[in-house]
Design goal:
The relative contact order is 0.21. The chain is an alpha+beta fold. It starts with a helix and ends in a 5-residue tail after the last strand. Helix content is 16%, strand content 35%. About 20% of the residues have low confidence. A hairpin with a 2-residue loop joins β3 and β4. The strands form 2 sheets. Strands 1, 2, 6, 7, 9, 10 and 11 form a 7-stranded mixed sheet that branches. A 4-stranded antiparallel sheet has the order 3-4-5-8.
Length: 184
Amino acid sequence: MRENWRIKVSVLAGASALAFSALTAVPAVADEAVEDLQEVQMPVDVKIVEGVAPAAGSDVPSLEPTTDAPFSAAAAAKAAPANTCLGSTAAYGVTGCFQHNGDIVWAGDTKKDGMSAAVGVYTDYGRAAEVCINKLGVNTWATCNKDYRETGNVRLRALRYDGDTGKFYQPESWSGWIPVDGKY
């Protein structure tokens, strides 16, 4: 009998903590105005790579947010051409995605706020993290051409970057794991 009481108290305490965290920790939406950016501490060994403008005439992803039905990454990967971006993620002022054909990271800047778009890339096999920075200005894409292990996965992290101070800022957003070979 005493054990049932402890279980009930434990469940109640856990539910209360979850409810409190849901009320106090609300992430910023991609289009919300941000008044007070918070600095993000990046790993010491993160490599910062300045992105370049896509080649003239190349297909570029849209910078417009999508409001379609729920997204299925696996279905998109099967139906998409080889140069399609997968694993898109967005935060205030930043859109990022991964093009598996060529291992290209795309960083899109969507807000005129004096900061740059930054898309971090993390692997599931221990390669050092890298961040692709778009210093080309608002409403532009920058690309960083990388070479990832075909049997690995990458994960994207979208956030803002201040080139004057070399600091990164929230809000941020993470993608799920994206297979480098594009096969879900």
